[in-house]
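Lab notebook, entry 309. We have the chain sequence and a SMILES string for guanosine-5'-triphosphate, and the next step in the workflow is to get a structural model of the bound complex before anyone spends time on docking refinements. Request logged below.

Task: model protein plus guanosine-5'-triphosphate, output structure tokens.
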Amino acid sequence: MASFLEKLKSGLSKTRRSFVDNIVQAVTGKARLDAAIVEELENTLIAADVGPEVTTALIEHLRERVALGKASSRDEVVATMKSFLQERLQMPMNGKTRADFFAPLAHPNVIMIVGVNGVGKTTTIAKIANQFRQRGKSVLVAAADTFRAAAADQLEIWAQRANVDIVRTKAGADPASVVFDAMKAAQTRAINIVIIDTAGRLHTKSNLMEELKKMVRVVDRVMPGAPHEVLLVLDANTGQNGLRQAEVFFKDVGVTGLVVTKLDGTAKGGILFAIQDKLKIPVRFIGVGEGIDDLQPFEAREFVEALFE
Ligand SMILES: Nc1nc2c(ncn2[C@@H]2O[C@H](COP(=O)(O)OP(=O)(O)OP(=O)(O)O)[C@@H](O)[C@H]2O)c(=O)[nH]1
Ligand SMILES: [Mg+2]
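Result returned:
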């Protein structure tokens, strides 16, 4: 079976071709970056969804390095781009390292997963739950997506696969009541980690954000200070639209981190740079497939290396 890194590398191959290779080719061997080259670079970067700010900054950086004679060979151009891109992806992890995420102090540690429909929330929960289990933590997942009749069934199948507890109710019930029951059950059973699955849309006219805010209030009432993490899931393929979605969630629900899914097979892997630049919030996980092991904590260095290989 292919390792996560291998999947990441092959998943990013379209992005590599449309983004990295074009730039390296356009810049290598040039004494200076003239207007025609700059335009070509701009088009490439915008198409790869890195966003206007990062596009301008990268071109400016390349222009300087080329003018200084420090980016003429292919290797030099690659090294210049790698260090620039890596730096752009370094985000303070809200003071939390990868190890901290998997060894939280709160009991239970409550993680809420939000995002529009179809981005990969439920699958992401299964994958994260599995990683906590592998580290010896007890996990309970809450099926608070009561919009789709099949949503709780889907989560239950994953819960069995990951060998974790689930709290669910009938479709159409108040999601906040599922959250309340899950919190109580977690306290009674002394569970380490609670992960809450939420809907990407609702059947009533009531507003999704209001519903999510209500869930946060319920969690906080049972356990002051919780949820400890609110992870917003974004589908890499949605590109700049994903950023607009994110802004809505940010305004209403206190998002603490991002999960970027479906990096396998997208040409829009450059979105990671736009996300970090715009949202200033750590990407905690990236997803490269539908299997339970196809999600890993995000590492800037690993991501950039994979992008170039
Ligand atoms: N290729 C690929 N597919 C993914 C990834 N993550 C999730 N998926 C697939 O995306 C589809 C939707 O995933 P779900 O987890 O059901 O998404 P959701 O956000 O819970 O959807 P709703 O509950 O309808 O809002 C499923 O077919 C998943 O297998 C990924 O990283 N790569
Ligand atoms: Mg779901």
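Notes for the group: The chain has a mean pLDDT of 91. Worth checking against the assay data. The CA atoms of residues 43 and 196 lie 40 Å apart.
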